[in-house]
Amino acid sequence: MIQRLHSGKRMSQIVIHNQTVYLAGQVDETDSRGSVDHQTRVILSQIDQLLAEAGTDKSKLLTATIYLTDMSQFDLMNQAWEAWVSPGNAPTRATVGVTALAGDAYQVEIVVSAAL
Question: Do 34 and 65 form a contact (C-beta atoms < 8 A)?
Fold first, then answer.
């Protein structure tokens, strides 16, 4: 069985299958003009909310992919990430430099998967 939450024509925000939760890429839609640090903290809060809705939390993260439009901001993003990630439960992770995201103001996008 596949469960899809917050589905639209283009995508679902949450997909649950075989005891794994997959989240769509998250961006800061509340104040996308903020700094990388601010955007990262907002996104991580959104991830917390979506994982809770799916019945899991950040201690069960399996993998994360982070997209940054400016790799010179890597340390700022990492500060927010390291303050948030569950101690002893860091997922596999990749950080990718990209030239653009879905909107010009977005500087960071994060995709995660977690176990239930």
Answer: no
Instruction: Find the CATH number of the domain harbouring 26.
Output: 3.30.1330.40
The residue type at 53: E
Phi-psi region of 55 (alpha: psi -120 to 50; beta: other; left: phi over 0): left
What's 41's DSSP letter?
Answer: H
Residue 38 contacts residue 31 (beta carbons within 8 Å): yes
In the block, residue with structure tokens 């469960």: 3
Give the number of domains in the chain. Answer: 1
pTM of the model: 0.96
- 6-54 pLDDT, tens digit per residue, is 999 999 999 999 999 999 999 998 876 889 999 999 999 999 999 999 9
